[in-house]
Amino acid sequence: MFPNPNLAGRWGGVAVLSLTLALPTRAQSVGEMTRQQAVSQALSQLSTYSQSLGNVTISAMEQQVAEAARRPKLEIAAAETVTSPALNDYAGTPFSFVSANGVLRTNALLRLRGEFDTSGALGEDVARTDALKRAAAAGSLVARQTLVLNTEQAFYTLSLAQAKVAGSRLNLGTARQLQDVTGLLLQAGEVPGVDLERAQLAVRDRQVELQTNLAGEATARETLRAYLGLTPQAPLAASALPDTAPAPEELSAYSAEWTRRRPEFAQLQAQQESYQHEAAVARDALLPHLTYSVGVGVDTASLLPQGFASGLGLQAQLALLIPFDDGGVADARAKQAEAREQQVVAARSLAERQVVQQYQTAHALAETAVERIARSHENLTQAEHIHRLAVARYRAGEARIIEVTDALNNLSLQRTAWLQAEADYQLALAQLRYAVAAPPPEGPQ
User: How far apart are CA 219 and CA 207, in angstroms?
Assistant: First the structure.
């Protein structure tokens, strides 16, 4: 934990200044949540991630359809047929031209009908839908990680904005104390009037700074609110940024080799396989197809019971279909699938370079942030010391107020730099976890 001393000076019973070195502390407010709570709530809201889960269900149903095509289907086929007598009527009989008893025929058949997968198209279609299901599942992981990253970025942006507002309020309070003290000194004739004007200018500067940071806080809050699905009236605050020095082993826990486990690669691999099977299905359409049916039914000219009894029987059928020419449809579909496969191969090559670049960038940002945290803490300590000396010199009449205001400005800048470094480190860690597909750490942060 970084040291957190309070600087306070008193002159004539009036508090001169009180500045905090560490991140401004505050009690937990209504609606405040930790990073883990924010991520959990974002994942439960309607988003691209929840929509991607629907794609998994849809692809699973499509696979069931493909698997059902390989199984025989039980069906009832019924028909009522009416034919005319023979038109030439050379025999002088009113019989149907189909058969002697074919003027009115009733056919009903209960049968099992299916197809032998001689061409392999049915099996290829099952494999295609299985690959699509795996692609959808990997796609849902991609959407989940993206949502987690966006939520964490919005969370830490709000946490930083809140800390800046708290620091601005502290700066404004200090500037007002300085203005009050300068006013008393002016009344006592110990300082010129310009000192009071400078003190008033410092107050106005701090008011502008506070308003600017309040606007940034409002923007950050609405961004996070959108990810969490909260209404505009719902209170929302992010927990404070960690005020501990980063652990040395924290960055070494992430390896560049872990980028290979990114779900994008599993998604692209499954998509490539689906297009390969799709091309095979298209080409298998030109191979012979062998179908079968087995059933029991009736063929009768009378709907009376004795008619059904006399026409009851079994039927078995085996049919061979040999396609010759489909006008180039199968070949076009196969080439289309192959072209899509090549697009996936190119996308995978591009993704491999991108994830390495994401990892290297995130790791470099994190390393830089660690160094910035250490340096900004040193600078903040030194800025506090300079401010303390400036106040003491101003008390003793050895310095003008401009030295105090400059020291206050510098202290404000160093505090902001420290806050920004802390936030940048947390953001870099979030990007690093995304780059290597690592889950967010457990526990409040």
Answer: 19
Q: Which tokens in the block code for residue 93?
A: 């009989």
The highest-confidence range among 19-23, 199-203, 210-214, 240-244, by mean pLDDT, is 210-214
d(CA 36, CA 271): 33
Q: Is the dihedral of CA 420, 423, 429, 433 positive or negative?
A: negative
pTM of the model: 0.77
Tens of pLDDT, residues 37-68: 888 888 888 777 878 888 888 888 988 888 88
The rounded distance, in Å, linking the Cα atoms of 43 and 60 is 22
Element (H, E) at 313: strand 312-321
How many other CB atoms are there within 10 angstroms of residue 86's CB atom?
14
At 246, list the tokens. 């980063």
Does CATH place domain 6-74+96-435 in 1.20.1600.10?
yes
If one counts every other C-beta atom within 10 angstroms of the C-beta of residue 293, the result is 19
DSSP 3-state of 389: helix
Q: Are strands 32-33 and 237-238 parallel, antiparallel or unpaired?
A: parallel
- Cα(149)–Cα(413) distance, rounded to whole angstroms? 29
Backbone angle region of 92, left / alpha / beta, with phi > 0 → left and psi within -120 to 50 → alpha: left
Give the separation between CA 376 and CA 106, rounded to whole angstroms: 94
How far is 429 from 247, CA to CA, in rounded Å?
12
> Any idea where the domains of the chain sit in the sequence?
6-74+96-435
